[in-house]
Amino acid sequence: MRQLIWVLIGVAALAGCAPEPSTSLRDPKALISSASLFDSARFGGTWQVVASGVPGCSGQQNWAWDGVGAYHVTGTACALSAQTVDERVVLTGPGGRLAARTGFGGEPIFVMWVDQDYRIAALGTPSGRWGMILSRQSPARPDLLKAAREVFDFNGYDLAKITP
């Protein structure tokens, strides 16, 4: 009986060492890029969440640019759940690389792509914990939505997990 107890304790201990199931929306081995010609001022304004890794999540986000290196972002986050965001998001590097303290899961935010006229944008994180497509209008133009989805595919995202 004593041996059985020790075996059960050992099995329980090993189960605690098992990796957590992946919640990533993308292949973490895939490279990820950000928008090289990102214009912070043009990105500012109101966006509609038209697709995300949170099924059924939609809403509006306002990205108010302060003119010196940060946005005040408010609205529906649609990053890890349908929670709201009301936070300062700082530009951390070239090409639309951003960071929030707690909003959007507190992870680096990459603006992977934005079209030339800033009508649609693809945002995600290197870990793949979340991704979303923002559009200035809802519904998004089908051709622009298709292009944004192609950017997700190029960056290793599972397109079946990025839904309207």
TrEMBL record:
Q: Which domain of life is it from?
A: Bacteria
Q: Which InterPro entries match?
A: Calycin (IPR012674)
Q: Which Gene3D superfamilies match?
A: 2.40.128.20
What is the name of this protein? Answer: Lipocalin
**Originating organism:** Thioclava arctica
Lineage from the top down? Bacteria, Pseudomonadati, Pseudomonadota, Alphaproteobacteria, Rhodobacterales
